[in-house]
């Protein structure tokens, strides 16, 4: 339940007034009662905004706030190492959006971390049995005390922590996904680590003939060019799009290729947008 600032203030004042009435009825204000009253008032007035017009302080760039705590994601994970408790998340979150815009796949090799840069490849070692796995960070969390990383179901299974739900681990940042996967000649399928669903939109038209003309022009320099019809306010429009990508970086590379070939108004969007 969410309370407005005014509602919170009324509740606080009501509680304090009730406390004062009880003290008056007792006929005396013992020192311990006064102490309790002061402490109660301090706590009540110290756990939230006092005025409805309190200014909202903007967060620094890339920072985010969860449960009243502000987190500052790192720009670079070079040399990062951490020990703590790992947990895992599964079916409840399967096929829902992750914090970086991808789609969570419990059978992929991904993880959530509070501050590591998105795309960081991380080696996770189960300290209890020395089993290891490598995951790619594409989400934020876990926001439970003492837990440092949330693994996908498959990654957690690899280090045998499914039954217990948690495990003591050591995590080491290996580098970003470009360095580890692309430049190393990785042969694993993209959907093992990349779980996005992106496409590139080049144009949108009310006339299907204009959409088809753009499609023909694009097919000279790009593959998988398609026209998607959609309804808006009772009208039909035709979007011209290029490709389907599991990685945002893959989509952005093709986007740049299109820009370099004269298609200026292009941008990457979610496939189902």
What's the layout of helices and strands?
Layout: H1 5-25, H2 31-46, E1 64-66, E2 69-71, E3 81-89, E4 110-112, E5 120-126, E6 132-139, E7 147-152, H3 153-158, E8 166-176, H4 177-182, H5 190-193, E9 198-205, H6 208-218, E10 225-232, E11 235-245, H7 248-260, E12 267-270
Parallel strand pairs: 3-7, 4-6
Antiparallel strand pairs: 1-2, 3-8, 4-7, 5-6, 5-8, 9-11, 9-12, 10-11
Helix pairs in contact: 1-2
Q: How many structural domains can be distinguished in the coordinates?
A: 3
The CATH homologous superfamily name of the largest domain equals: RlpA-like domain
Gyration radius over CA: 27 Å
Q: Oligomeric form of this entry?
A: single chain
Please state how the strands of the largest beta sheet are arranged side by side. 3-7-4-6-5-8
Helical residues, percent: 25-40%
3D architecture notes:
- The chain is of the alpha+beta class and 273 residues long.
- The chain folds into 3 domains: 5-46, no CATH class; 69-193, Barwin-like endoglucanases; 198-270, Alpha-Beta Plaits (2-Layer Sandwich), CATH 3.30.70.
- It has 7 helices and 12 strands.
- It has helices at 5-25, 31-46, 153-158, 177-182, 190-193, 208-218, 248-260, and strands spanning 64-66, 69-71, 81-89, 110-112, 120-126, 132-139, 147-152, 166-176, 198-205, 225-232, 235-245, 267-270.
- The chain has a 6-stranded mixed beta barrel with strand order 3-7-4-6-5-8. Strands 10-11-9-12 form a 4-stranded antiparallel sheet, covered by helices on one side. A two-stranded antiparallel ribbon has the order 1-2.
- The chain is elongated, with a radius of gyration of 27 Å.
